Amino acid sequence: MVQHTREVVEYQGETYFAGVESRGTIEIVKIPGEKYATDEGFTHYEDLSVKRVPIAEIDAWYRDEFTGKWRGQPFVLYPNRDGTMGADYVGPSQVWAEDNGLEGDQYNGFRKTFSPDELEDVQVDRIDHLARWKEKNPG
After folding, report:
1. Which of 56, 63, 72, 136 is the most buried (most CB within 10 A)?
2. How far apart are CA 60 and CA 26, in angstroms?
């Protein structure tokens, strides 16, 4: 199961959140709660540990996006730590969202939290940022 729905970098066998990319390098950010083999080269800012590494040295850089349906309507999904799935409604009907108990409004969007077994047609799409970077930066 996908654990993170934001950009991540795999570097030297470990997974980090991706930070800012600049001039052939990218920041890797330790994921809170994860244990890492080394602290070498990291700069610490309160709750963040950050290190800049060459993109050519990373193993992977991607983002996984969940989509699925509830009651036939489309949602963008994200896993919560408690095993539930947060869901942002991306369907066209404000009336449907309100009639089905979604929280929010037409300006800020509608959302709901589900048990995974309430969802259907769940798919994961991986956006491979490293492949895109290599296309733009051959050699």
Report:
1. 63
2. 12
117-122 own/partner pairs: CB under 8 Å, 24+ apart: 118/70, 119/68, 119/69, 119/70, 119/75, 119/77, 119/85, 119/87, 120/68, 120/69, 120/70, 121/67, 121/68, 121/69, 122/66, 122/67, 122/68, 122/77
Tokens of 2: 């996908």
Closest Cα partner for 114 from 95, 93, 88? Answer: 88
Strands (E), 5-119: 8-11, 14-22, 25-29, 43-45, 48-54, 60-70, 73-79, 85-89, 103-105, 109-114
Q: What is the pLDDT along the chain (139 residues), one digit of tens a residue?
A: 556 668 999 999 999 999 999 999 999 999 988 899 999 999 999 889 999 999 999 999 999 888 999 999 999 998 888 989 999 999 999 999 999 999 999 999 999 999 999 999 999 899 999 999 999 988 7
